[in-house]
Write a structure and sequence with these properties.
By secondary structure, this protein is an alpha/beta fold. Helix content is 40%, strand content 12%.
Amino acid sequence: MDEPDANVVQALSRAGLDVHADAGTRSMYASDASLYRIPPLAVVRPRSVDDVGATLAVARETGIPVTSRGAGTSVAGNAVGRGVVLDFSRHLNRVLSVDPDTRTAVVEPGTVHAVLQKAAAPHGVRFGPDPSTHPRCTIGGMIGNNACGSRSLAYGRTSDNVAGLELLTAAGERLATGYDDAGVPFTRGAEDVVSGACAVMARHLSTARTEFDRFGRQVSGYAAHHLLPERFDLTQALVGSEGTLGVITQATVRLVVDAPVRVVVALGFADIVAAGEAAPAVVAHGPTSCEGLDSRLIDVLRARRGPGAIPPLPRGRAWLFVEFAGDDAGEVVARARRLVAENIADDAVVVEDPAVQARLWRIREDGAGLAGRAPSGKPAWPGWEDAAVPPDRLGEYLAAFDELVGSYGMTSAPFGHFGDGCMHVRLDLPLDQPDGTKVMREFLTESARLVGGFGGSLSGEHGDGRARSELLPHMYSPDAIALFGGIKHAFDPGNLLNPGVLVDPDPVDADVRPAGHFPVRNLAMAYPHDGGDLAQAVHRCTGVGKCRADNSGAGGVMCPSYLATREEKDSTRGRARVLQDVVRGELPWSHPSVHDAMDLCLSCKGCASDCPTGIDMATYKSEVLHQTYRRRLRPRSHYTLGRLPMWARLAGRVPALANRSLTLPLVAPVALWLAGVDRRRSIPAFARRPFRRSFSARSSDLKPVVLFADSFSDSFSPEVAEATVRVLRDAGYEPRLPSGSVCCGLTWITTGQLDSAKSILRRTVAALADDARAGLPIVGIEPSCTAVLRSDVHELLPGDDDAALVSSRVRTLAELLAETPGWTPPDLTGTQVVAQPHCHHHAVLGWKTDADLLVDTGATVQTLAGCCGLAGNFGVEIGHHDVSLAVAAQNLLPALDASPDAVVLADGFSCRTQVADLRDRPAVHLAQLLDPDAPSRRPPHTPSA
């Protein structure tokens, strides 16, 4: 990566701007959610409109271009550029006002869609357009692309929902647009710019009147028809201009009243073409939404997350999700049933339950991420992901497009806004091959010709960006292209604003991020799902940015560090972008920016389950630490916390002495510092007698099981292991311990000591293999250790048949009990439980079996989303304390404070430690909750004062 121009960076700094030009930031902002990689010279995060003006002034003085960016979820390369990137999401992100009487809101451009909805909801209104990225996309980004979303049948495009704009032109002039009380459009300021645009239009009136606004999703190019003298409306003309005509600093948006009743009809079809052909007939029934989904996308989700991830669907290989909304439940249901009665589809299901509806919409919202793996199993890329045709021709187009894809030997899984004629898709373009970009160019060109032949639009809501701007002549006449150039010149004669987009476009095959082959040798992890290719693994990140959203509403964990800091470097996406530059050879493993990005990763594995692309940042972090410190001096905490089971075994020989030494006034602080532990943390006491020493096997007729007594349960929480033994015996099992000492090596894994971790795991597998061959279940106690045997063992010991066999026999306690005929849980009716699933339990093992078991107990259970914040060694390490507390404050601490008398259920040792440390409350393992010898099903607890 070339060094940035120091003079420009200094000029930006002298202007008092929040400017970042380090290698890590430039890596993170070099990509959005598109195929393209263009490292910026610097990133400026404006705090005010004056900061935007100051940035533009420096740009004019130095000739450096400016690109506006919201959440960076642009799929066409609209939010990357070679000059200064203006990130509005960090500071200019407020909802300034909500007026329920006029049904309008005033927002800054970096306002997240979900934040606006939250501010509007108490007034009974909402912003209508709702793209699938709504939990993290910004209103400014939606305006830039003219985003629509799944309910555009009811609410229209963003351009239909903007009541006024304030922006700065490239010359730094302030321009305001809007509507007067009579609804007549007005403009204020930048008179020369506006008159220049009108003069351009006067030379192209016929073209503007005939080539534009032919159907609802014709978004490509400029909305020139709104500059016609008979319908001049600069507000609507600027929406969808992709940051090339001005820099938006404020927007007034219209709000709508949300219907209280929603019913979804899932319609099943033989194939995606049949679904597309049926869409116009469905739209005739007046739904708010008509979304298409191919079975190939469902297959990807099922393979990744299991059949339980898919709610019941009607018979078919493609589906339309159709939503009806209204005020009267009976009337809405009747409309849904009338649609079903028409027999448009092969099968149908009417869904009235909001929870099931939410699961269906979640599949659709995750479409772009799920489609990141093609049906072929290869990486799938955007580029031609947003074409639209007149809705009555969608079926024909889908058939022709499928044929074109097949002719290139590629596969796809289409989905999209079928009611509007808009199709989304990602394709397994052969970008890892020497001629990959050549094939890409040929395919995109043929696709543009195809959609042009159907009278369609290259883009239906994502904008043209770098992916399609060069292809606009396949859709528009030379006069229309000249018109675009004239409009651009009127607003931005120096071509400072987002150059390379729409006018004088960059080639579609230039600056393609994943193009080429980037072999990384001597890796410690196997990356079996990516063919052993780390480059392919880190390029799983498509940039959709789900890691920048609060996913707790859906029970998610990802990404706790970003929610704590709101910094791009602390998001899964930011880390992936930095690692993409590592595999490209742009940054070494040991570069400070790489470690700065990885530092606050909690290794929670939330992204492995919650990110629709299946990225696994915990594994990549371990690889980074391994590659950086192998055969080198490591941080202190790697020798202490990273080898905790070894030290715990030694302390277990003299636990009283070990515990006493950690409480001595002079010894304890020094010991904590030497261990790399934050002095504000307490250290859990070693057990007076480790579990393995106290356990005695019994001779019985009960079914044998192997109890994997991990180091934490053995050395710190033997009471949990003892309760597990009692529960197993009560369920008809006789537990026995493996022959020899066993450990999963978790602490070595998380600190990147992977050679040692492999050795430890090999010994453990050897100790368990005979029992696994005998068909015995291997029951884990600690979720993180159980998850290593279920998942990480395949990364560290690939091709080891014994390791695979052992992994297949591993069960959680809840899983074994669920498989046990005749076992019933104790009656816990009247018991209130606050459950904090361990992150690895959520991400790797799955919490559903535990949740179902708890329901069967009759207890009242509140299951928390998110991470507890301790995350193994993370939260106790020096430098992580404040973030650990901030993560705990997201979900755990509010729940504890709201339910002071509840039983706290936390299977993870780190979760129980966090609860004890921050709220001085006991927390129990599932085994303790189910323990048949417990005098009470809930431990006594007196809330602390």
